[in-house]
Fold:
Amino acid sequence: MIITINGSDILQYPYYFNAMHRLRAEVFYDRLNWSVTVTNGLERDKFDDDNPLYLLSIDEVTGRVRGSLRLLPTTGPNMLRDIFPNLMPPGEVIESATIWECSRFSIERGGELPLPGQLISNVAGELLAAVVEIGLIAGLTETLGVFDARMIRIFRLAGYPPMLIGSPQRIGSFMTYAGLFEISTQALSNIREAMGIENSVLEPVSAARCLAA
Structure:
C-alpha cells in the first residue's frame, strides 16, 4: 500500500517522517556511500524544505515503511537543475508545470528482492505504479529522474524504461543518468502487467487527497 504525505504535514506524521528519513540514511549513506548529510540517523537535504509530495510504501500489517520517494515540480528547486546540471546538454533546462522530479527512491534492505516468479520487488513495483497514478491525477505528462545504472534494469523489467537525456557521468562509484518517464494510462498498464497488479496501489485517503490538491 502507498500513502502520500505533503512535506508541510511533518508534525502530523512524525512516525512516518522519521522512518522515511532513517531509511534514506541506511540506503544512501550506509549502503551506497553517497555524500549525504545524516543527523541523528536521519538523512535530509535542502529539497526536503520545499514541501515535496512523499510516497511511502507501507506494510499493511506492521505499518513499517518499506520504501519511499519524493516528488517536486520542476518549476522550482530540483536536483537535476541545481545539483546535477552536468547531466543535461549545455544550456538546457527542464522546467514545466506538467513535469515533476522524482528523487530519493529508497527501499529497505531485503525489500529490493523480487519474490519467486517476479521480475522486480513488490515495493519497487508499488512505488513506480504510484508515481504514474499520482501523475495521472495531477495532469502530468512526464516525471524526471536522476538515477544510477543499476536502476535502469529495474525500470526496464517493470515495463517502464526511461527516455535518457543528456550524457551519463560517473558520480562517485556509479554511472549516473538523467531520464524522463512517460505518464500515461498505457505506462500504468505496462507496470501493472509486469507486476501482476490489478488495482490502485494508493491508499484511498491518499488518492482522495491528491484529487483534492
About this structure: The chain is about 30% helix and 25% strand.
